[in-house]
Design brief:
By secondary structure, this protein is α/β, with parallel strands linked by helices. The protein has a single domain, classed as Class I glutamine amidotransferase (GATase) domain (Rossmann fold). The protein has an 8-stranded mixed beta sheet. It has a 3-stranded mixed beta sheet with strand order 5-6-10, with no helix packed on it. The longest helix is centred in the last third of the chain and has 14 residues. It is globular, with a radius of gyration of 16 Å. It has 6 helices and 13 strands.
Length: 202
């Protein structure tokens, strides 16, 4: 059973639908007792950094997720804002993130107005190290992005790079903790394969 954390910051149905397509059972919940018993967690999210943190704390999920990640070491996959919350802090807000990944979240700023912010649409990823998350992945993997901020990793947890004027960290992995800036649930066969690997390889 995959537990999808519902902290009221995004449409989670598309993630659950993609999991259903690969034959994985999942539940969407904000119930702390259910998340306490989770064996695998997806932390999605769209919107502002501080709002996401405040919402997790409002629903009494912050400490539970710390316990799941750091003590029980269950596999956790952050998606979009959920991935950014794994980092230490963000230029978007004032609050500290989980800090599970040694990375800061930075704002896209371009002098060249030909590049739009947010970064929206399909883009390629370049794998930086071996990972079960990308096991058997289709050639030239590309994923769907919608974001104005990006992860800037300070250690060896960077998993993929993507280019949008410059290279940025588009996925991270450190032991049981993974995060992807893109939306696998909107990324067709590539996203389906990534989620299948998360379900079956960890």
């Amino acid at each position: 059973m995959i537990t999808i954390v519902d902290y009221k910051v995004g449409n989670l149905g598309s993630i659950q639908n993609m999991l259903k397509k690969i034959g994985a059972k999942s539940e969407i919940t904000s119930d702390p007792s259910k998340i306490k018993s989770a064996t695998k967690v997806i932390l999605p999210g769209v919107g502002a950094y501080d709002s996401g943190i405040e919402s997790l704390k409002k629903y009494n999920l912050w400490d539970i997720l710390n316990e799941k990640a750091l003590v029980e070491q269950v596999p956790i996959l952050g998606i979009c804002l959920g991935a950014q919350l794994l980092c230490t802090k963000s230029e978007e807000g004032e609050l500290d993130g989980f800090g599970w990944i040694n990375a800061e979240v930075r704002r896209f700023e371009f002098k060249d107005k030909m590049l739009k912010v947010p970064h929206i649409g399909w883009n390629y990823t370049s794998l930086q190290k071996d990972s079960k998350l990308f096991k058997g992945m289709y050639q030239d993997p590309k994923f769907y992005f919608v974001h104005s901020f990006y992860m800037d990793v300070n250690d060896n947890s960077g998993l993929t790079k993507t280019t949008y004027s410059f290279e940025f960290d588009s996925a991270v992995e450190k032991e049981n903790i993974m995060g992807v800036q893109f939306h696998p649930e909107k990324s067709h066969k590539f996203g389906m394969k990534l989620l299948e690997n998360f379900v079956r390889e960890y």
